[in-house]
């Protein structure tokens, strides 16, 4: 799979319209139009996954720079960044445990009653 970034399409475009635009050049498997979380309005760009590198390059050659309405399409291949291994999570603010391997939790210990004001 090759991921494409597409921008410059009209803000009222639907997923189907974008797939129909790219469809003659590449077989689109997924599409995600990026929208504002609150207003749900299109931000003007989307991500597509196409099946082949050659198809992605053909779509870029054919559509990049094409005027669509009053805007100009831009297509690019998204370079996948290698996933960095995450560092172990450290907890800040909790007391260090000085006893080796044993837990401070005692299910038999009763909780202190709350003060009623």
Radius of gyration: 26 Å
- What best-fitting shape do the alpha-carbon axes yield? elongated
What value does the average pLDDT take?
Answer: 83
**Looking across the biggest beta sheet, what order are the strands in?**
2-3-1-6
Question: What's the number of extended β-strand segments?
Answer: 6
**Which H/E pattern describes the elements?**
EHEEHEEE
Spans with pLDDT under 50 lasting ≥5 residues?
A: none
The structural class is: alpha+beta
Largest sheet: 4 strands, antiparallel
**Portion in helices:** 10-25%
Number of discrete helical segments: 2
Question: How much strand?
Answer: 25-35%
End-to-end span in angstroms? 63 Å
General description of the model:
This protein has 117 residues and is α+β, with helices and mostly antiparallel strands. Helix content is 16%, strand content 26%. The chain contains 2 helices and 6 strands. It has helices spanning 15-22, 53-63, and strands at residues 2-7, 28-35, 42-50, 67-68, 71-72, 74-77. The protein has a 4-stranded antiparallel β-sheet with strand order 2-3-1-6, with helices on one face. Strands 4-5 form a two-stranded antiparallel ribbon. β2 (28-35) and β3 (42-50) form a beta hairpin. The longest helix is centred in the middle third of the chain and has 11 residues, at 53-63. It is elongated. It starts with a strand and ends in a 40-residue tail after the last strand. 13% of the residues are buried. The model has no long low-confidence stretch (mean pLDDT 83).
